[in-house]
Specification:
By secondary structure, the protein is mainly beta. Helix content is 8%, strand content 44%. The N and C termini lie far apart (103 Å).
Length: 663
């Protein structure tokens, strides 16, 4: 009996040895280039952690790699793909994120970084992660970049047939690894993005992108939680020749198709985006949302065409166009249908155009073509929301066919109809101070006893700080980087811009941390320090030099009550004002204005829509310092609020010594 066992063991060892030798021979042929196609299992398979074997297979040089269905998932840590390779996933293959791994904020399951000629084919195969784990603060530091597939600054990449599920970020992320290098020639076809944490797909920068026959569904976790979000991070990024065809978004916690473009401007590559035969259905918050910048410098050009698309069963408005200037990129709908929008919210309007906070020019430039609205609710079909007191929507065209029951009403849009339907909400009009060619210098106000920078006020989204320093000065600021809601965050890298335009690294502020940043001033003059908190907030505390918040590029965006802030009214100013507003949906602010003697000239509580605080004061012979107090409203929530100074230098400060005037 023992002899038989010995023979069996010897035979098994011989077979194992023979198999290992065969594998080694095959691997050698791949390395020499004799074999172009390989199987991933040649490099081994460990059911508990197959990372090393799979990564070696990918880096083997095989031009075609088959990942076999071995009856168990390939459990892996982050995997990095190589150029000039086609990977075939056999039907039923599961690539699964290893439990307890992916602790880094931006560690993705598969990454394609600065590569080319990569093809992933996997009809019936799945790349999946563990979304619930990444949302557990006891297990993971909160982040929104643990993608299933991250493609950055790569070209000639194709993804076919895969299901990408349960990521800690996006199903697919198309971004930038090297500045100025977008993803190029990307094809995503027959793909399913299912139950991802932030987005089904995010498109940050792409040139020649085709997404076809793809489903993006059940996104939930952290905002925006959209089906797909086109959202460049910088003006240098681009969305050129991007096509979606025969795609479906459904049941996402956020919107379906989102185009969030305020980071693009007139210097950016013009948009060229087309949605064709696409559907949004089954409870997305909004089916189609398009938002751009709206100031003198923010008017990205180009166009987006939405053709033969259908939007069904949104929780809110089906179509929302926000901040888009009439002269900016054209938005054109052709033969589209909106059905049963906001059925549980009859007070909402199916199609909305918004002059959102920050708009300084009329909104519009939308052609709805011939749009069919099937809506059983008796309500307006088109709404206009004015947060800034604009002159009303412009360049809005199209024909709406509204069907209710067995009747159809047809409304042709015209400027006359728009003006009558949405009369301008008028108040005293005062334009911002012209800034072209203006150089600012200290106003020379001395009131050190009023300096209170040690009590922080908080800024949200993009803002800029301004201060003056002498050459050789050591400048330091205390900044607080805090979370808002459930938004994820990363460290803020702080860079100061010198009077001559030189960029100076000033340090970083980790997320949910207070940190001191600073620099040594190389020259005398005015320094600007951009701070972009994104969806979160940055508090400005103690400073070595008096610091102001700049409204040069648009309204100053506060979150919470900022307290007392001063601004300069130069001698001879004929009219000036402060436009103050909250952000709707119960987000309000209380404001009061005080003259140089401390007398209150204006007060308004619970401000949601814009209020102009414009004193009828005669021009003064000398520069004056006025004070604006921002405090919590008596009702509503004190969150996002805005101040847009008009007719005067656009700077607010806790310390009058930080105020600036035209040189």
């Amino acid at each position: 009996m023992k002899g038989c066992q010995t023979l069996l063991i010897a035979a098994a060892l011989a077979a194992t040895t023979g198999f290992a030798q065969e594998q080694a021979g095959l691997i050698a042929k791949v390395a020499s280039g004799e074999l172009k196609e390989a199987k991933a299992s040649w490099w081994g398979f460990n059911s508990e952690d197959a990372t090393d074997a799979l990564q070696k297979a990918i880096r083997s040089g095989a031009s075609r790699l088959v990942i076999e269905n071995l009856g168990k998932p390939w459990i892996v840590r982050p995997i990095f793909l190589e150029s000039n390779q086609t990977i075939i996933f056999e039907e039923g293959v599961i690539i699964e994120a290893k439990k307890g791994a992916f602790k880094g904020n931006s560690e993705s399951l598969f990454s394609v970084i600065l590569k080319e000629n990569v093809v992933l084919r996997g009809h019936g195969a799945t790349l999946r992660m563990h979304r619930a784990d990444y949302d557990n603060p006891l297990l993971y530091k909160k982040a929104e970049w643990r993608h299933a597939l991250s493609i950055r600054s790569s070209k000639n990449v194709e993804v076919h047939g895969l299901t990408l599920a349960l990521s800690g970020g996006d199903g697919i992320y198309l971004g930038v690894s090297k500045q100025g290098v977008p993803d190029e020639n990307i094809v995503i076809k027959d793909v399913i993005c299912d139950r991802n944490y932030r987005q089904g797909i995010s498109v940050i920068a792409a040139r020649n992108l085709l997404i076809e026959n793809t489903i993006m569904k059940d996104t939930a976790g952290t905002p925006p939680a959209a089906g797909i979000d086109f959202e460049p991070n910088a003006a240098s990024e681009e969305l050129v020749n991007c096509v979606m065809r025969n795609c479906l978004v459904e049941n996402n916690d956020g919107c379906g198709y989102v185009f969030y473009l305020p980071n693009l401007n007139a210097d950016s590559a013009p948009l060229s985006i087309r949605l064709e035969n696409c559907v949004s259905r089954n409870g997305n918050r909004t089916d189609f949302e398009f938002i751009t910048g709206n100031s003198e410098k923010e008017a990205v050009g180009g166009r987006i065409d939405v053709v033969n698309c259908r939007f069904e069963g949104s929780r809110g408005a089906a179509i929302s166009i926000g901040r888009k200037p009439a002269a900016g990129a054209a938005v054109r709908f052709e033969n589209c249908v909106v059905e049963n929008p906001a059925s549980k919210a009859p007070a909402l309007v199916p199609v909305v155009i918004e002059a959102r906070p920050g708009c300084r020019r009329p909104v519009g430039g939308v052609d709805f073509g011939e749009l069919t609205l099937i809506d059983p609710v008796e309500r307006d079909f088109l709404g206009y929301v004015d947060w800034v007191g604009s002159s009303g929507p412009e360049e809005i065209r199209g024909t709406f066919r509204i069907r209710r029951g067995g009747t159809e009403t047809v409304q042709q849009l015209s400027q006359e109809w728009l003006d009558k339907k949405f009369p301008a909400r008028m108040f005293k009009k005062i334009e911002p101070m012209p800034l072209d060619g203006v150089i600012f210098e200290p106003a020379g106000i001395h009131a050190a006893d009023l300096q209170t920078e040690s009590l922080p006020y908080f800024l949200r989204k993009e803002n800029s700080l301004a201060l003056t320093a002498m050459a050789g000065d050591t400048v330091s600021l205390s900044l607080v980087h805090s979370q808002v809601g459930n938004y994820g965050g990363d460290k803020l890298e702080i860079v100061a811009v010198s009077p001559s335009g030189k960029k100076i690294a000033a340090g970083e502020v980790p997320f949910q941390t207070t940190a001191a940043v600073g620099f040594e001033a190389p020259e005398s003059g005015l320094y600007r320090i951009p701070v972009n908190a994104g969806a979160n907030k940055v508090g400005v505390g103690a400073c070595s030099h008096p610091v102001a918040v700049s409204g040069e590029d648009g309204p100053i965006h506060f979150i919470g009550a900022a307290g007392d802030l001063f601004f300069l009214v130069p001698a001879g100013t004929k009219k000036f004002g402060a436009l103050v507003y909250g952000e709707g949906k119960g987000e309000a602010i209380k404001a009061a204005l005080f003259d140089p003697a401390g007398n209150q000239t204006h007060e308004k509580d619970n401000i949601i829509l814009p209020e102009m605080f414009a004193p009828d004061a005669p021009p003064a012979a000398q520069d004056q310092v006025w004070r604006l107090r921002l405090s919590s409203p008596s009702s509503g929530t004190c969150e996002d609020n805005y101040v847009d100074l008009r007719g005067v230098p656009p700077f607010l400060s806790r310390n009058p010594g930080a105020l600036l005037k035209a040189k």
